[in-house]
Amino acid sequence: MSKKLALTLACGDYEIVRALKEGTVQPDGIELTIITTMDSSTRHWRFLRNREFDVAEVSSSSYLLARDQGLPFAGIPVFLHRRFRHGFAFVNTSKGINEPKDLIGRRIGVKSFQVSAILWLRGILEHEYGVPHKSIEWVTEIDEDVEFTPPEGLRLSRMRHDQTCEELLVAGELDAVLHADLIWPMVERHPAVKRLWPDYKNEELAYFRKTGIFPIMHVTGIKQEIVDKYPWVPVELMKAFEAAKAVAMKRMENPRIVPLAWYREAWEEQEEVLGRDPWQYGMTDSNRHTLETLIGYSFEQGLIKRKMGLEELFLDVNQGRKRGTNRI
58-72 burial string, b = 16+ CB within 10 Å, else e? Predict the structure, then answer.
């Protein structure tokens, strides 16, 4: 029996990786141990700081910092997590904040400054709504995935260990919070908190129609030592991720598997607006535009010192024209 290369993969427990996790799809020559139970920020820390996994879904923002600082990682153009972000800006209802420009001069809480969701929101606020990121006092809750020196003119501080963004927002000690997830005051409909954009879905639709961007939150990182020793691994992983996604999309077309009354209508709406495969992997024109926008935001906000090219950031997983389709 031929021996397979044993690798660890840490990622979210997504439908698009279910076939990999269950073993329905297996990368050729690789035996994967897949870890899916940890939260995103813990996974990013453990991969970028401690290098505990061979391959990992990782914050796109933190990955850019890691590469900018010369850390030994490479990227595979597999993007397991995307999300529009307008629905994740929350404000205290007593602060008179009714439109984006009301945020200028305010005190805004974030989990960490580097979080990809927050990088996207700062860029969107600045470029689409005229809210300069340096006009805000930023207050972080946790330490960063990758240490960095804040640029001159950036007001950045950290709250006490016993404080949280959500609690300070409810108490009015923060004017707003930008977050990667729904916060508990919104889930519990606390009267002190509302969304900055109440009609956030239409804001997101308008943003997509204007920019063509469905924001990429996470990329897939791999230890450089794996690439150096086994240069064939990224291509085989790419093929496996694509195959797993194809299985998931075929399964998800069936409205019976999801307990939502209008699920099929939502599926059809997504296809009409975003196209047949809004979760596309690889260096497509759309993905290039999205990633280059993110790199521009990161450079503009002082997280990275130079704008890196996509060919520098991501491995070439192209197998050649008309190759990789099992043709003889």
Answer: bbbbbbbbbbbeeee
195-199, 206-210, 264-268, 293-297: least confidently modelled range = 264-268
φ/ψ of residue 303, rounded to 5:
-80, -40
Beta strands in the chain (DSSP E): 5-10, 30-35, 55-59, 73-82, 89-92, 107-110, 137-140, 155-158, 176-178, 193-195, 216-223
Query: Within this chain, do residues 75 and 220 fall inside the same structural domain, yes or no?
Result: yes
> Among 247, 292, 280, 282, which residue's Cα sits nearest to residue 76?
282
* CA count, 13 A, side-chain hemisphere, 252: 21
DSSP 3-state of 227? helix
Q: Which pLDDT score is estimated for 328?
A: 42
Whether residues 74 and 104 share a domain: the answer is no
Q: How far apart are CA 232 and CA 230, in angstroms?
A: 5
Instruction: Please write the tens of the pLDDT for every residue from 229-245.
Output: 999 999 999 999 999 99
Residues 233 and 302 in one domain: yes
Examine the fold and report which residue of 211, 235, 268 is the final residue of a domain before the chain moves on.
211
Residue 37, classified by CB atoms within 10 Å of its CB into exposed (0-12), middle (13-18) or buried (19+), is exposed
Question: 178 and 194, same structural domain?
Answer: yes
* In a shared domain, residues 194 and 307: no
Domain span at 99: 86-211
Distance CA 240, CA 20 (A): 7
Residues 56, 197: one domain?
no
Query: DSSP characters for 129-160?
Result: H---GGGSEEEESS--SS--PPPTT-EEEE--
Say yes or no: 165 and 66 in one domain: no
State mean pLDDT over 20-44: 96
Query: Number of folded domains in the chain?
Result: 2
Tell me how far apart the alpha carbons of residues 296 and 169 are, in angstroms, rounded to a whole number. Answer: 30
Is the overall model pTM greater than 0.85, yes or no? Answer: yes
3-state secondary structure of 309: coil
Q: Let me know: does 294 contact 286? Beta carbons within 8 Å.
A: no
The single residue listed with the structure tokens 């991969």 is: 47
Considering the domain architecture, whether residues 188 and 102 belong to the same structural domain is answered as yes
